[in-house]
Give the backbone structure.
Amino acid sequence: MSELYMLGIEEAAKGLEKGDFSSVELTQAIIDRVHDHDGEIGAYLTFDEEGALAAAKVADEIRSGKSAASPSAASPLLGIPVAIKDLINVRGQPCTCGSKILKGYVSPYDATVIKNLKAAGAVCAGRVNMDEFAMGSSTENSALGRTVNPYDTSRVPGGSSGGSAAAVGGDLAIAALGTDTGGSIRQPASFCNCVGLKPSYGRVSRFGVTAFASSLDQVGPMTKNVTDAALLLQGLAGHDEMDGTTPDIPVPDYAKALEGATLKGVKLGLPKEYFIDGLDPEVKAITDAAVKTCADAGAEIVDVSLPHTEYAMAVYYIVAPAEASANLARFDGVRYGHRSDKSDNVFNLYARSRAEGFGPEVKRRIIMGTYVLSSGYYDAYYGRALKVRTLIRRDFEEVFKKVDALIAPVAPTAAFKIGEVLDPLKMYLNDLFTIPGSLAGNCSVSIPAGFTASANLPVGVQFIADAFCEDKLLRIGKAFEDIVPPVRG
Ligand code: GLN
């Protein structure tokens, strides 16, 4: 049998069910693995080992019937340890958002996704690194530590959910939660050989998830295969009265949707705007091969166009910083975390606490966001960006009348070297192919598709489906994965 830490959710759940091992043993295997290997990878910021083992023990008791039967007894997540991105509130744990400004903060409550996971019997196992306030594409913007790519430790894991991706890709976690605002689940999943699913906007509650850009943020699964993504999404999704953007519509049975998955007769759109000059030739070759795989398996490949794609980056870098500038106003040195001791009046307290607490990229976004919202510029930038966002959404609505899903690259390149991308504008380009879907609010998934010939780096392919069609998206992903099975490194 393979080492316990190598298992994914489905396999681990089977082993737990058969009694091959307990959740305490599984959780301990992750803890030992983190002790042995995370010094090199740096995926985790903190790990409440005692708390995780205690939760695992409860899960074992529920399974053995020693503890009062609860709805979680039949859950595939019962006793499964899941690593949590460090911007999701878990009661009694730190929640740093990768920032100095939240140093010392301990969450007094559980985010809805955490409540849901706990109700399903999952074990919150460790807090993973990220770009500060989820702003970035390499995890180099974390103020709290460096995370490297488990496939090549001289390279970045991607970002902003780089800790989640490195943990799953490096077998330091069974599965992880990430968040995606413009690509932060999908791009690191591609860089670290994981499956990363960004749910449709509103499918998963944002309550208790530290806000970056509220009209874009979504929590999603980062896993070792598509089935695991389905199982974890099931534990996250659904209406929440604490988040008014989660519609009260049924959550499909995602695992069931995978049964008999096939690409036969599936119409896959190939958006011409995603195959541009800046696309690395090796990434293009892997994407082309994925398209051919789908065609050979019976999918109908249809050329489509999303004509407003070229404006997506500009729209995102107005809308996301605008929302961030408002959301981050709450970090004032009074209510949470870091408080400057060098201030003699309340204005200085705000200004100095923020100046000392926030890193350079976060400051850049706050300045940009404040600028585009300021009087005289609001209509010219923010108002206009919202109008173009509508056009981008309509592009997708039009193509989804013709095709079941789109197939596209995830990011223009594979993982780059640490310190290689210093220009913020170049860093922003990482999300060229993930941002449009985020603006439109639909769902998409990055699935491992191959390795580059030159440096043997993992590369994912992206499937994009219409909003609230995660069942269809996962089914397509599963059919693809059945032909191109995950290669664990
Ligand atoms: N890299 C993008 C940014 O820096 C997206 C981040 C994200 O999805 N959280 O804004």
About this structure: Residues 134-137, 160, 180-184, 212, 320, 431 surround glutamine (CB under 6 Å). The chain has one domain: 1-489. The chain is about 40% helix and 10% strand. The longest strand covers residues 443-451.
